[in-house]
Amino acid sequence: MSDEREAPNRLPAGGSIDRDRPLSFTFDGKSYSGYAGDTLASALLANGVVLMGRSFKYHRPRGLIAAGSEEPNALMQLEKGDRTEPNTRATCIELYSGLSATSQNRWPSLSFDIGAVNSLVSRFIPAGFYYKTFMWPASMWLTYEKFIRKAAGLGVSPTAPDPDRYENTHAHCEVLVVGAGPAGIAAAAAAAASGARVLLIDEQNEAGGSLLASATGEQEPVRAWIADAVEQLQSNPDVTILKRTTVTGYFDYNYLTALEKVTDHLPPGSDPVAPRQRFWKIRARQVVIAAGAIERPLVFADNDRPGVMLANAVNTYINRYAVLPGRNIVVFTNNDSAYRTALNAANKGAEVVVVDTRREVDNTLVESLKNAGIKHFPGHAIVSVQGKLAVGAVRIMPLSEDGKTVQGQAWELSCDCIANSGGWTPSVHLFSQSGGKLAYRDGIAAFVPDAATVRSVNPCFSAGACNGTFSTTDCLSEGATAGRAAAIAAGFPGSDVQLPASDPASDDRGQGDIHPLWLVPTVHPVGEGAAKHFHDFQNDVTAADIHLAAREGYLSVEHLKRYTTTGMATDQGKTSNLNALAIMADIRGAQIPEVGTTTFRPPYTPVTLGAIAGQETGELFLQVRQTPMHRWHVEHNAVFEDVGDWKRPRYYPLGVEDMHAAVQRECAAVRDRVGILDASTLGKIDIQGEDAAEFLEMIYTNGWKKLAVGGCRYGLMLNEHGMIFDDGVTSRLGEHHFHMTTTTGGAARVLNWLEEWLQTEWPQMNVYCTSVTEQWAVAAINGPRARELLSTLTDIDLSTEAFPFMTTSEGQVAGVPARIYRISFTGELSYEINVPARYGRYLWDTLIEAGKAFDLCPYGTESMHVLRAEKGFIIVGQDTDGTVTPHDVDMSWIVSDKKDDFLGKRSLSRLDTARDGRPQLVGLLTEDPAFVLPEGAHIVSQVLDKPPMPTIGHVTSSYLSPNLGRSIALALLQNGKNRKGDTVQVQLMDGTVINAQVSSTVFVDEKGERARG
Amino acid sequence: MAELNPVLHTPLQHATFHGAGVVMGENLFCAKVIVRGNFDDAQLTSRLSEQAGLPVNVAANTFVENDSAAVFWLGPDERMIYSYAKEPQVLLAELRSVMPAGRSSAVDVSDYYTTIRVGGVNARKVLSAGTPFDVHGSNFPEGSCVQTRFGTASVMLVMQDSSPAFDIQVRWSFAEYVWRYLRRVAEFRTLTPQS
Amino acid sequence: MILINCPYCGERDQTEFACHGEAHIARPTDTASLTDEQWGDYVFFRTNPKGIHYERWVHVHGCRRWFNAVRHTVQDEILATYEVGAPRPDVGGQQ
Ligand SMILES: [Zn+2]
């Protein structure tokens, strides 16, 4: 890049930018150039772009205030299309080639915004405006909301799926250090020297913290020490350093979350492998918080004009990015820290004037200003700012002794930048989130962590500026002490680190003798006159709003926050909270600690939802379970259904068949010939032990002691409420050995149920339960020709005499060890062939091959449902819903009256469960045999013109039965037992009413002869 | 009867992954039996140990292994026994023969689980994406095995050697899910810039 | 996301566990002789204290053992864990 095209505010030398790597980018469609090492903010500022956004409520023109993540104003719509992201802070975006950013919250353009009319009528939009105006009537809210959203939107969301990939991962360490400034580096070095596993996290792309803003030559020994310490940490295998990473939350048991921006500093999509961002879930034994401090603005008239910046931000732009934000800079301060900015700016060629609200200023500072030729106004304050789109001049006046008024000789100072400092607010966010309490320290006019209130489950230490310690020398030693203490607390020997010698001459003075001035007076009382005193820039909240809130009785900080919305924007009030509550304290005539602070909530900075989801999207969104035959189903065009976590074939369409046609064909094949179903998903539990039969007596409603070895029995399980909870067939494999089956979705629940009773209530029982669901692959062959088919593959005698219905047999099938259960869920002759899962696919292939001679038809869960409904077999969870007893589903036959007790038994005789007229399971046959009732449709007691109509039950299962050539349904109907033969009315969604006759629940082969044949 | 030629399948038999610092694949099928009983009973433990060829009274969260077998702690009354030499039915019958009838159980779970080996310098990072358990050597030394969570699936993590190489024992039906999960996070590691 | 000390496996992440409600509720033995009120009290009624709560937990993704825990419901801190069948531990007069 040639010199004549150099950006106007870029200094000719210095900074940590790489001048050999120019990068071009666009802002609001216009092209600019910056350097590698710039942020979007520094590059725009270098190019003389001061106006970067419009404010939320009044649409006031706004520019940069800060240089870090506390920035409230310079919110950008980053990139376009499916990667666009609203509300990104220009100060946190590392510049990359081709970056495209757009300003937000303005229409039609940034410098001419129609919404700014809000500014003219602002006396009509005071605090609480939205609450007051839009609270009533509620029905109008939808109308108002559209208006508000359009007028006050902060950027736009992408409409297409996010093309980027994210990762979500866990980390563990003995000592987590938050912040890589002097305190954090010293802490990490001390902890690592002890041998502890250390995780060091910092928001920036390089270590250094506050020193990243220091000028060449400043604090050289410390910077050299830090560079050396970082190198040592990097080479230590027990230390992990995460840069570009923000710790966003501090949760219980030292569980912290962090967001790492892995590739956000590169052009989008340019890294084909790495995730865009990584979300860390960290478990730390000990935490050292060294999060630094945030400078807060002074609250003076029209302090939001573009060009009004925080003093240290100006310093950072000069030293780190080689950008001089103004040629005529007014430094406005109530403490010492801003003097560094004044001297630096003057050194770089700016005309600087220092306006200090304090009358007495340390003599060495006064001398240094004098030496640098900087004009000094102690005891003065800015009373007005001229310029709308950019600062043009300020007016200053002497402050009264108490700081409440201004009087005397006014001066007009022309300027293009105001560097202001109201003091430093320690970043106590994480400490507060950990449950620790804050204490107000008068000497520094800020809240700091109260170390005595650290929660025992969240052991942590605070060090450095976040602890109210500002001098670099003190930060280093405090950090080293904290790191050492943390390592000792984590069980390691303490180690000392050699710190650099202190250099009082160049050490950070911190705030010096700060004189808080929470609200800078003008010639008008607060709220009068045209000027506004902002404390919350992002949510446009002014000192006058706090006065209004106080007048209306919102005196508590929590009320103040919600009423004025101060601190509730995306920056979470990082620069505004202390000013707001100090102003409130002043109004109430209270001390600041009496007013207290609002709760600091995570996240510290916004977290992308994609990063929280991480890799668990798409096929990894939920766990998916597959059977050993899964690939066969895929290869044969199966349409799958989710049952629990399982993928089960629902039907197998041939050619252009739809589900209806496929199911009709599959069902007919099972009743006429033979069908095959993958039943591997059924839950299976192996139960062994001398008390196993006794145990089943308690678990099931029926009797089990007399079941012969080799016999199978259907059972219902109730919970203690007496309600059906699962069902299945259990077989006796030996005197003390049972094989239980459960519903597909209920397997884990049932095993837990059994284990809970055994472990907590009946530990004396000798019973052991082991899940064997996936041990066995199961092919169920059903239909009149099932025996013929199976006989071609096994030597087991399949005759009814040798192998009757409801028994089990062991042997070889297709040359592999198998256990066959002769049980039936279709009402047909049926064999459920179990083989070890490793042979599942082989068994299936072999059956399919052998089945060709019998026209064997694979069928899915939909046909299974139709076939079982034809037989009136219930599906737990479909025909029952947790309020249904065995008596309600006409299964009183399975409830033993010989047993003294079983789970749920006592509940069956409770007043409500024993009463007549409960909803009971019935069959329904529609008058029009072709009409299939929708499942869930209500049976009504009275037909009205339109819904709702009084309901007496609902349809639970409904199908077109191919074997009956008509529709069938099951329903829960009040007093259904006594309504057989009645005609009832079923109401559809559109209000139509369908007549149906109440029938038995068994529609096919009522005597059950087919399964026994 | 038709001509029979039984073919054995395992859930991930064709799955392999080779990336920078990560190598993954499915271990060979082996016999596995879960035994449950009173492990405070010296007679049971000595007879079982003799039969297994390894001590079965292992400490919580540990396992022992030799060339032909392995014993894993699953719970106070529960162990998993692998045999690399025997057929599942043989292992089951042998173990059952030394256990007190009616007061213990032995169940063949050879097919219930499969095992994925994850090795390489980035193996720990790959595992940490899915499990909240700390797999660092100081917390999970050689000889450790833990039952925990990977993604939403229950798994047993086994520290095989400190090269490092880990085994993830997972139920058959979850194998494909866990494999895809591992592959996705392993791919992130392949070329992640560490600049 | 708290840590829970499984009496069998040691300290593990909360996501490996499930809570099964109040502990130390014995199932009545002679259920047939109970009145509806007595049975209903066992089935439906549980304490809901602000402070110390005795709970039954299961290590779902771990050893699948049930155990009891003393949890402070305000601070969401587990003060002790112990085996089923063991008496309520002394948690040092915490309320
Ligand atoms: Zn456990």
Describe this structure in words.
- The complex is a heterotrimer of chains A (1013), B (195) and C (95).
- Chain A has 1013 residues and is α+β, with helices and mostly antiparallel strands.
- Chain A contains 25 helices and 47 strands.
- In chain A, helix 5 crosses helix 6, helix 5 packs parallel to helix 11 and helix 8 runs parallel beside helix 9.
- The longest helix of chain A has 18 residues.
- Chain B has two domains: 91 residues, Probable tRNA modification gtpase trme, domain 1 (Gyrase A, domain 2), CATH 3.30.1360.120; 78 residues, 2-Layer Sandwich (Alpha-Beta Plaits), CATH 3.30.70.
- In chain B, the strands form two sheets. A six-stranded antiparallel β-sheet of chain B has the order 1-2-8-11-10-9, with helices on one face.
- Chain B starts with 15 loop residues before the first strand and ends in a 5-residue tail after the last helix.
- Chain C has a single domain, classed as Folate-binding fold (2-Layer Sandwich).
- Chain C is mainly beta and 95 residues long.
- In chain C, strands 3-4-5-6 form a four-stranded antiparallel β-sheet, with no helix packed on it.
- The chains are: A alpha+beta (1013), B alpha+beta (195), C mainly beta (95).
- At the A-B interface, strand 8, strand 36 and helix 22 of A face strand 7, helix 3 and helix 4 of B.
- Zinc ion (ZN) binds next to loops of chain C.
**Average pLDDT for all residues of chain B:** 93
Report the CATH topology name of the largest domain in chain B: Gyrase A, domain 2
Q: Which range does the strand content of chain B fall in?
A: 25-35%
Quote the average pLDDT of chain A.
93
Oligomer: heterotrimer
CATH class of the largest domain in chain B: Alpha Beta
Helical residues, percent of chain A? 10-25%
CATH topology name of the largest domain in chain A = FAD/NAD(P)-binding domain
Structural class of chain B: alpha+beta
Largest sheet of chain B: 6 strands, antiparallel
CATH superfamily of the largest domain in chain B: Probable tRNA modification gtpase trme, domain 1
What distance lies between the first and last C-alpha atoms of chain B, to the nearest angstrom? 66 Å
Q: What is the count of β-strands of chain B?
A: 11
Give the overall shape of chain A: elongated
Question: Could you list the spans of chain B in which at least 5 consecutive residues all have pLDDT below 50?
Answer: 191-195
The helix fraction of chain B, in percent, is 10-25%
Structural class of chain A: alpha+beta
